[in-house]
Structure formats: C-alpha cells, structure tokens
Amino acid sequence: MKISIHSIVSSAGGEQPTQQNEQELATKTLYIQHKRFYLDVKQNHRGRFIKVAEVGSAGRKSRLLLSMAASREFRDHLTTFSELYASLGKIVMVK
User: Fold this and answer.
1) Under 8 Å CB-to-CB from 29, ≥6 apart: which residues?
2) CA quadruple 89, 90, 91, 94: dihedral positive or negative?
3) Do residues 35 and 56 make contact, with C-beta atoms less than 8 angstroms apart?
4) Beta carbons of 24 and 10 less than 8 angstroms apart
5) What is the CATH number of domain 23-89?
6) For the region Disordered, what residue ranges are annotated (predicted)?
7) Chain centre distance of CA 29
8) Exposure winner among 2, 23, 26, 80, fewest CB in 10 A?
9) What count of other Cβ atoms lies within 10 Å of the Cβ of residue 6?
10) What global pTM score does this model have?
C-alpha cells in the first residue's frame, strides 16, 4: 500500500474562519491507493473536532466527524484492531 502525506498548517495563529464559524487549526491530505483523504482539526463553539473526508476515484465523497475525545478512543480501537490483524499472519488468496 502506497501512502503519501502532505501537510498544511494554517498561518496567522492557525485559525481560518469557515462558513459555519469553524476555525481550521490543521489539515493533512493523504493519498492511499486511488483515494484522497483529508484530515482536518477544526474548532467551533462546541469545541475541537476532527473531520475526515474521503474522496474516491469517481469523485464520491464520504465524511466522518469526531470530537477530540471520540477520536482518541477511535485511535485506540484502530490500534488494537491493527495489532490483532498483524498477529493473524500473511493471508494467502486462493483462486
């Protein structure tokens, strides 16, 4: 799997207002296989959150919003799952 990472950190204190009174604090673009993923850390009146947007090769877009607390818990579950997957060993596809 090929992963490319491009980072952009906002200037001027890291805050850029958006349409819904959101401030963009940091953003990353990941290119994984034939998809683009945008990872944004934003802030609004309810607090900080992470927005993940996936854009497929056909242009279809999916979004996921997580509070910072939920993102930490999600990361922990992904780490556990990744460790379990790694312990399974190499998978051989049979045709």
Assistant:
1) 5, 6, 8, 36, 37, 38, 39
2) negative
3) yes
4) yes
5) 3.30.2450.30
6) 1-22
7) 8
8) 2
9) 10
10) 0.66
Q: Which of 81, 75, 34 is nearest to 52 (CA)?
A: 75
Identity of the residue numbered 25: L
d(C-alpha 40, C-alpha 37), whole Å = 10
Q: What is the pLDDT of residues 35-79, one digit of tens each?
A: 899 999 999 999 999 999 999 878 889 999 999 999 999 999 999
Alpha helices for the chain (secondary structure H): 68-87
Q: Quick check: 67 and 47 in contact, CB under 8 A? A: yes
Q: What residue spans define the domains of the chain?
A: 23-89
**pLDDT per residue over 2-28, tens digit each?**
444 444 444 444 444 455 789 999 999
